Amino acid sequence: MTQRRPVVQPSPAAPAVLDADALVLAGGRSRRMGTPKASLPINGVAMIESVLRVVEPIFRRTLVVARPDIALPSLEAEVVFDQFPDRGPLAGLISGLQATTARWCFVTGCDMPFLDSEVIRLMAGQLEGAEVVAVRSSGRIQPLHAFYHRDCLGRGESLLREGVTSLMALHDRCQVKVFDEAEFAGGGRLRRSLWDLDTPEEYAAALAG
């Protein structure tokens, strides 16, 4: 169930540290990239480290949710293992929610090195009355640049038991607020924040600036 909302604007009272945790999903096999994405460098920094540098200062706790056999660069962040490996991002989200007691979690992938903290803060100001807060870009909802309430946990576990692995299937069972680019102050920053690197061509474009 999706709600439409007015244009998202900055909140002058936004706290320095948001009352939420961050989950960085690193459980995929990077088949399209052909090599583990988390360790690929962007401006001399591993891609996952670029993500962590954005989320760690603004969330109470940051968890990297990783496949048990994945090779990650040396990280200071807390790493928890995906309890349902190779079952997609829904499984990573559920593993992360099981490992935290936070009411809200911001969920992102390890392949989004251009995350924008101000975009995330704008989204955090829209949590009231929702169970999921996400954005739509180029006609597509971005489930891995979104906030999920703890109430999503039980429904996500049920989906996994049913053999469903899609995050969008979870959206169908939750109260979702979705913001289009046109509704979002700072559309250009939003698009860059949503940029995920899945293929060698996308990685090359990111390196080229």
Model description:
The chain has a single domain (18-207), classed as Alpha-Beta Complex (Spore Coat Polysaccharide Biosynthesis Protein SpsA, Chain A), CATH 3.90.550.10. Helices cover 28% and strands 24% of the residues. The chain has helices at 47-55, 88-98, 117-124, 152-161, 167-171, 187-193, 200-207, and strands at 2-3, 18-26, 41-42, 45-46, 59-66, 78-81, 104-109, 132-137, 140-141, 145-149, 176-180. The strands form 2 sheets. Strands 1, 2, 5, 6, 7, 8, 9, 10 and 11 form a 9-stranded mixed beta sheet that branches. β8 (132-137) and β9 form a beta hairpin. α2 crosses α4. The termini are far apart. The mean pLDDT is 87.
Summarize the structure.
The chain has about 210 residues and is of the alpha/beta class.
Q: Whole-Å distance between the termini?
A: 37 Å
User: Mind telling me the CATH superfamily name?
Assistant: Spore Coat Polysaccharide Biosynthesis Protein SpsA, Chain A
The ordered H/E elements are EEEEHEEHEHEEEHHEHH
Strand % is 15-25%
Number of β-strand runs: 11
- In terms of quaternary structure, what is this? single chain
**Structure annotation, total helices:** 7
CATH class: Alpha Beta
Structural class determined from secondary elements? alpha/beta
Instruction: Enter the CATH topology name.
Output: Spore Coat Polysaccharide Biosynthesis Protein SpsA, Chain A
Number of domains: 1
